[in-house]
Structure formats: C-alpha cells, structure tokens
From TrEMBL:
The HPr domain, residue ranges: 2-89
Gene name of the record: ptsO
Source organism: Rheinheimera nanhaiensis E407-8
The keyword Nucleotide-binding belongs to this UniProt entry's keyword annotation: no
Name the record gives this protein: Phosphocarrier protein NPr
Upper classification of the organism: Bacteria, Pseudomonadati, Pseudomonadota, Gammaproteobacteria, Chromatiales
InterPro entries reported in the protein's UniProt record: HPr, HPr-like, HPr-like_sf, PTS_HPr_His_P_site
C-alpha cells in the first residue's frame, strides 16, 4: 500500500533538531518506508540528518509519502505530529 498527503510546517522553529529527532523516532516504529518531499529534495523520515537537510522552516509545504503494510497508520501518525507542531508550545 502507498499513501501520500501534503502538510505544512506550523511550529515556530520549523523542522529543527528536536522536532526532527521526534519525527525520526516516530517513523522508526513503523514497518512502512516513510519519506518527506520538499521541492526537489526527498528525505528518509527515519533519519534525523536527512530531515535536517530539508531545512524546513515554518510555512514550508511537505509531501509525506508512505509505502508498506502499515503505510496508512504511519501516514496518519506523521501528519498528526507535524500538524500538532511536533508537540511544542
């Protein structure tokens, strides 16, 4: 199964180190392959370094792409985390 959804970074600091770590740890819980696409760059969402290379700031639009047995659950979890601003205040 393959799923895709577009999301916008809403937290003030964007996809910084703490947020990237939280996202990578979440993605590592799933069997699905999870990638984030921003403009012409693609990142493995389970890799903190790859996520930081996207340099996603507040307002940037990302496409979340998941593929595998639990792709739908993975997509929902990642989209929720991003939409909730990585649970930051």
């Amino acid at each position: 199964m393959q799923c895709r959804q577009t999301v916008t970074i809403v937290n003030q600091l964007g996809l910084h180190a703490r947020a990237a770590t939280k996202l990578a740890q979440l993605c590592q819980q799933f069997q699905a392959r999870i990638e984030l696409v921003q403009d012409d760059k693609t990142a493995d969402a389970s890799s903190v370094l790859a996520l930081l290379m996207l340099a996603s700031s507040k307002g940037k639009t990302l496409e979340v792409c998941t593929q595998g047995d639990d792709a739908e659950q993975a997509l929902c979890a990642v989209v929720d985390l991003i939409n909730n601003g990585f649970d930051e205040q």
